[in-house]
Amino acid sequence: MRKKDNKKIEAIKQAVIELSRQEGLSNLTTARIAKRAGVSPATIYLNYEDKTDLLSKVYQEVKVKLEGNLKSVINTDTSLEDQIVATLGFTVSQYKAYPDLATFMGLMWQNQDFLDDETVKISNTLNDSLKQLFERIKASPKYTNTSFEVLESFFTIPTSILMRNHFELTEEEEQQVISMVIKAIQK
C-alpha cells in the first residue's frame, strides 16, 4: 500500500484554495488543481474520491482552522457583552490572519452544492461555543430574543465588511462595527 505524501496533500489543498479564489468554483477542475499543486491528477484520486470529496474535506479543515479556538476566547466569567466582543474580535482577527482561507470559506458557504451532504450539515451547524453564546444572549433580558439564524447573520457583519474592504479595517473601524452589532441585538 502506498504511503500518503503529506507535502503533496498540502500542495493540493493550497491549490484548491488559491484557484477557487482566483478563478471561482465553476472553473475549478481536478486537472487545474493537479497542475497548480505540481502533482498528477491520479495523486488527487489516491487521496480523495472526487472533486466534491476534495472540496468538502478542505472546507472542513478551513472551518476548524478559522473557528477551532473560539472556545478559548469566550470567558463566561465576564459580561455577556464582553463575550460578544471577544467572539466578534476573534473572528475578525482570524479572517485578517487567514484571508485566503476566509475567502475560500465564504465561496463554499455561498456554493454549498459543491459540498457533500455531511459537510453541508456540518457547515450549517453552529460551532458549540457559538451556540452556547447564542443561548446566553437569547436568555438575557438585555438582548432581543431572536432566532439563532438572525444572531448568526448579525455576527457575520464584521467579517463581511472586512472582506468587502479587502481585509483592511482599522482597529477603530472594527470596534465601531462590533459596537453596532451589539446595539442591533440589544433590546
Task: Summarize the SSE layout with pairings.
Elements: H1 6-23, H2 30-37, H3 41-47, H4 51-67, H5 70-73, H6 80-97, H7 99-110, H8 117-123, H9 128-139, H10 148-155, H11 157-164, H12 171-185
Helix pairs in contact: 1-2, 1-7, 4-7, 4-8, 6-7, 6-9, 6-11, 6-12
Shape descriptor? elongated
How would you name the oligomeric state of the polypeptide chains in this document? Answer: single chain
Query: Roughly how many Å is the radius of gyration?
Result: 19 Å
Largest sheet: none
Report the end-to-end length measured between terminal Cα atoms: 61 Å
- For the record, the count of structural domains works out to 2
Structural class: mainly alpha
CATH fold field value of the largest domain:
Tetracycline Repressor, domain 2
Strand content: under 5%
Helix-strand topology string: HHHHHHHHHHHH
Considering DSSP H and I runs of 4 or more, what fraction of the residues is helical?
over 70%
Ranges with pLDDT <50 over ≥5 residues?
A: none
Indicate the CATH class of the largest domain: Mainly Alpha
Question: Would you identify the CATH architecture of the largest domain?
Answer: Orthogonal Bundle
**Beta strand count:** 0
Number of helices: 12
Mean pLDDT: 93
DNA-binding region: 29-48
Keywords: DNA-binding
Protein name: TetR/AcrR family transcriptional regulator
Domain HTH tetR-type: 6-66
Summarize the structure.
This protein is mainly α.
Describe the protein in words.
It holds the Pfam family TetR_N. It comes from Holzapfeliella saturejae. Residues 29-48 bind DNA. The chain has helices at residues 6-23, 30-37, 41-47, 51-67, 70-73, 80-97, 99-110, 117-123, 128-139, 148-155, 157-164, 171-185. The model has no long low-confidence stretch (mean pLDDT 93). Helix 6 packs antiparallel against helix 9 and helix 6 (80-97) packs parallel to helix 11 (157-164). The protein contains twelve helices and no strands. The protein has 187 residues and is mostly helical.
